[in-house]
Amino acid sequence: MGAPPQLRRVRVRELVLVAATALVVLLGIGCKPQIGDSCKLSTDCSVTGDRLCDTSQPDGYCTIFNCEPDSCPGSSTCVEFHPKSDRFVRRFCLATCGSPGDCRSGYVCIDPSKRDAHIIDSASAYGNVCLP
Fold it and tell me: What is the pLDDT of residue 32?
């Protein structure tokens, strides 16, 4: 014989709750912040510590500091600033863009060479990045 109706309703509620919890967890994982997203703290960019929040940029900028060529994730590229000065050279993963609409508010889609920088990836699909 089957379980009494009350017990079946409890089991159905438990299954619905488990399914809803799993969905929330999956959606949370799928919404990982991207390079170039706004932030206030580095944990806004990554809870694992692999990205940091550059708070010197307007509304913060999720990035990876000291990137190596071809190491940036997703739609980002490694950009070297002040390449002619060993003392001041810095590398950051920056969001790539093809048009102004690809960048968030307050940022422009620009060739990094106009800001004393250049892309150091071996093969970049874009020549422009989102900068303030």
Answer: 83
Please give the sequence-ordered ranges of beta strands (E in DSSP) within the chain, or none if there are none. 52-53, 62-63, 76-81, 90-97, 108-110, 117-119, 128-131
Which pairs from 114-117 meet CB under 8 Å and 24+ separation?
115/81, 116/81, 116/82, 116/83, 117/79, 117/80, 117/81, 117/82, 117/83
Which residue blocks in 5-125 are alpha helix, DSSP H? 5-30
Q: What is the pTM of this model?
A: 0.75
Q: Which of 113, 88, 108, 83 is nearest to 97 (CA)?
A: 108
Predicted pLDDT at 86 = 86
Closest CA to 63 of 52, 71, 77, 55: 52
Q: How far apart are CA 38 and CA 14, in angstroms?
A: 37
